[in-house]
Structure prediction request, 658 residues.
Amino acid sequence: MERNRRNFIKTAAAGAGWAMLGGCASTIQSCQEIIERRPVRRNIASLSPDDPVIEAYRAAVSAMKALPSTDRRNWTNQALIHQNYCPHENWLFLPWHRCYLLYFERICRKLSGMEDFALPYWNWSEQPRIPSAFFASTFDPLFDPTRLATPTSTAAASAVGPSVLAGILDEPNFLVYGSGPIPASASQRRRSYYGPLEGGPHNYIHGFVGGNMSTYMSPLDPLFWLHHNMVERTWVHWNLVREHPNTEDRAWLDREFTEFCDEDGNPVTISVALSLLFPVISYRYDDEEDDATMGAAVAPAAAIDPAQAAKDRAMWLRLSGDTKADRDANAARAQQGARVDLQVLERIATSTPLSAALDQPAVTRLMVDPPLLELARRGRDVRALLAFEGVGLDFTTDFSVRVFLNHPGAGPDTPPSDPHFVGTFASFHHAHGPGAAGVGTFLLDVGPTIERLGLEEGPLEVSLVLAPFPDREPTERTLEVARIELQIGRDVIEVSDP
Amino acid sequence: MIWRAALLLLVAAPGPACSCAAGHEPVEPHDGTEPQGLEMEVELSASAPQERLPLPAFATAPTVLQLAITAIDNPKAQAFAVSASLQPPGGVEGGVPIGTFAPFPVDQPGTFVLPLPAPAQEVLAGASEGLALRLALEPMLPERPLVEPLRVSLAEPTWQ
Prediction:
């Protein structure tokens, strides 16, 4: 089972990595190495004024400004992408700006000649004044004369301060956090509503800086990119540290953007689904595992002693750990590239295949002893996962699968806000021709639902409900699942060779 | 970590299944095409920058406040934000903060969803009689106080 899970993820990540890295590697192994060495986006406050990263950024901005207007990488042309295409006040805000930043960063890398260049970010929450590098002189490429804010202007803590950011990061629902949904058929600029991140600190900083920054031509100000890098960092933190999931709505995942260009000025097409892998294959943040600047207390990864890490090589360790120090150390080791696996303590599986239809949810029971349920409820040390094995993958264009726990009446009208809702799975696979279809395995974390329902004894009744995608007439009407397994275990890491 | 992260990104369930959901019920999404609560508009200006609005009677304590800016007249492109807070009877300043939001660009109306912070939820879960919602225009740059003309119209707040 662990192998299935790892293979699934490896395939997804490696496949995406291949596309994202431009066929950079001839083997998955070499792709892995590139991923593990991906550039680090740093807090500009930690860089000296003449840091090579800032110098490279200056050089790149100058080079882009010098490019002819026929070149898509030209500075004004890059800003025009924002002017003409940027989605705001809807759920494409985050992924669109993620892609915008990534391709801009690659252009900077190419034009500066700094191979490991990564955009720095401006942590306006901790450093509420504009970084001094952006006021170096009126002739400096990083200076924008239209700004209203001065070097001593201070963004209000009540709008962007750490407690505000911590509150935003506490929001678990992507449809709140990431701004509101729009239909798949709508223009990407259709307005819905602002989530607290976009409508709060994001918009605030645009207005606070003023001048170009308060308009849709805001990318003319070189500070724009560092501001949005902070927004991006916040989303990455929300996903990877706070472990809040994104929506799996296909209207979001399948959206494609075609307005960006790569480092050579060639147009590219990128989907939201693929962009979700950027933070794990294309860059990382200098304090990705550090929750301290985001309002919680986790020690920085830098506290790890390399000698100790080497000493612990090849030892299996619990990812969570018995003490805070253990947890910090293990999280840092994982961040440094150690393999993470699930150590399954108990497995309880169904014995017969399951079949669901559009008008007929499938229900099965797993007999679970009370002590195991108690174990599953214990918190972050122990995880309870539902594995759906042998799932036919040729359903993807028609519906997603909603899973409910102990809700015998669950049906297509039962909303995900129902407390019995466990999660949804769907596949990115599309069947194109004979042999394209296959089977796959999906995992859902059922622990929070068990905890929320306060379940103390079994059996666990698992319902699979087929939910057609909006505005689509399903052609496939059934789903086959070979086996459902409840896994109770814990994350462990294997410290890899340096 | 990479694979675990990818697992989280690719396979994880949506918000309602999250273990950190305590205190917030997910908001039912709407596509923003139906303006909500336009019966009673609130107008803020540089010369009258704040307004106190009585709270409705809540059947259950809300967790989200939705505010829609319906129109902005800001010919000088002034940098302003709107702060929302709960105020006790007779209160003028302070109160319990709910959040601060801003338009982008500075003359672009929009709808803002503000999850209520825990202190605000606690206040609303108790006796809310006499409490008011205070909305106030604030300059983003203290050295640039807001001046006329500046008018911001908001729809009646929606509590969820």
